[in-house]
Amino acid sequence: MTPRLTLTVKSTALARLGAGHPWIYANELARPPKTAMPGAIVDVRTAQGAWIGRGYYNPKSVIAVRLLSREAAEIDAAFIARAIDRAQALRDAVVPGEEAYRVVFGEADGLPGLIVDRYGSILVVQILTAGMDRLADAIVAALVDRFQPGAIVARNDSGSRKLEGLPVEKRLLHGAKPDRVVVGKNGLQFEVDVWEGQKTGLFLDQSANYRAIAPWAKGARVLDTFCYAGAWGLHALRHGAVSVLGLDASEKALATAAANASRNGFDERVEYRRVDVFDELRRLLAAEARYELIILDPPSFAKARKDKAGALRGYKEINRLGMSLLAPGGVLVTCSCSHPIDAATFYDVLLEAASDAKRTLRLIARLTQGPDHPIVLGIPETEYLQCVMLQDREENA
Fold first, then answer.
1. Active site residue 337
2. 282-332 per-position pLDDT tens digit
3. Where are the beta strands (DSSP E) in the chain?
4. Which domain holds residue 65?
5. How many CB atoms lie within 10 A of CB 362?
6. Which 3 state secondary structure label does DSSP give 241?
7. Are residues 255 and 173 located together in one domain of the fold?
8. Total-model pTM
9. Are residues 173 and 186 in the same domain?
10. Are 231 and 355 members of one domain?
């Protein structure tokens, strides 16, 4: 066994760690080492010497240790390969036959700091921490062995890497650099830009939720805000919507959305506008526009807890506007992917927005991320997506 540093954790962290959480903050270490390299594998014990687990350490990060194993397992290529195999076994069970899905979801799959998304024969990875960065060769080898991909692209362009002392970059890890990839999703075809698209190219976490709008789409005029690649609106059209107006601030996103609409034969029923979404919703409200189905799926308004107050104001306003634009009996699909905004808080915001909009709304469904983005009890950070479907009661007309 390789000799390694042993760190002592304070008693204040024991309850959370005992519930299954893998993070240890810098102020929870009794004697933080001064010489350990970022990403070094360490053992963690209590002050009494009881075993906690094995993980990696980064003196530059507020989250000083991320646990990889509660056993004394060697953290090597075989360990990584076993973890990826377990992750894929879950996807085989919960999203069988899918060609576009999340293979590895960080902490939820026991590999904190690693995201792997699959788009057909192309894998896109995000290596977000120094510990995972030191294991990059083993990760690539395991992915090549398991999937035989045509390419593995590293989208290491997340700002969170800076907090770990890592460079922000995009690079090819294996195979030939791919063009845009076309994948099937729920009976539709989508172009995926794995190099320049947001996140890893497509928002896979809403895949199951897209199907939930089917009963409400037939005959509907649809307003798809923050539409990105057009997935919500195209699903609505597939289920019988008469028209879609897609709004987004990104010219590249709208070009991809238009290409996806054309690829699926919906050119004549869709319009895209490059706008500030808040401003455009106010303009549409002033023009007395109304829609039978409205999608509010904005990017995260809160990346950290310090952003929470501003995010809540943003969510309240966007939902007030969306609710006000609903036709009698219309359905609003409203989402939050902000980690600091939990389900109860988001629901409270919706109540406040409905009061301001003077609307009475029925709860149709409360949804979250798909099963390829598993939620782990004891790790609240693994649950981040709120998706609520509300129906206007017709007496609001």
1. yes
2. 999 999 999 999 999 998 886 777 778 888 899 999 999 999 999 999 999
3. 5-8, 23-25, 40-45, 51-57, 63-69, 100-105, 114-119, 122-127, 151-156, 169-175, 181-185, 188-192, 221-225, 243-248, 270-274, 291-296, 326-336, 361-367, 386-392
4. 5-69
5. 11
6. coil
7. no
8. 0.93
9. no
10. yes
